[in-house]
Design goal:
Layout (H helix, E strand, L loop, with lengths): L2 E3 H4 E8 L4 E8 L2 H8 L6 H8 L7 E5 L4 E7 L19 H4 L2 E6 L6
Antiparallel strand pairs: 1-6, 2-3, 3-5, 4-5
């Protein structure tokens, strides 16, 4: 049975640019249990994001918003928006590695492959 991913527990996982120099991703969790997992610092933290996105750990910002069951993550873009090496001007695809992050010890029907 495939492992459960963050996408399985979320209503929506999205990314967007936050100005020309930052990317923001948001996890809108379906319920309090999903939020509890996504907000768990031993599971999702600055080190994990830094490794997933190859950015400096010290630049990663995580915001946990329990009243909304939302986790927001921001970090500097690898290249500035619209520059010659920018491959995603709207940062609309950056959320995919986060959405595919597997929840340890939870099996389920994964909708993300």
């Amino acid at each position: 049975m495939p492992e459960t991913t963050l996408a399985d527990l979320a209503h929506e996982v999205r990314s967007k640019n936050a100005g020309p120099f930052w990317v923001t991703m948001e996890l809108f969790m379906r319920d309090a249990e999903g939020y509890r997992i996504a907000a768990d610092e031993s599971f999702l933290n600055e080190r994990v994001i830094a490794e997933l996105y190859r950015v400096e750990r010290s630049t990663v910002q995580l915001f946990r918003i329990p009243a909304l069951n939302v986790v927001k993550i921001s970090f500097p873009r690898p290249v500035s928006q619209g520059s010659l090496r920018d491959r995603d001007i709207h940062a609309g695809q950056h959320h995919v590695p986060l959405a595919r992050l597997r929840i340890p010890g939870r099996a389920g029907s994964s909708t993300v492959s």
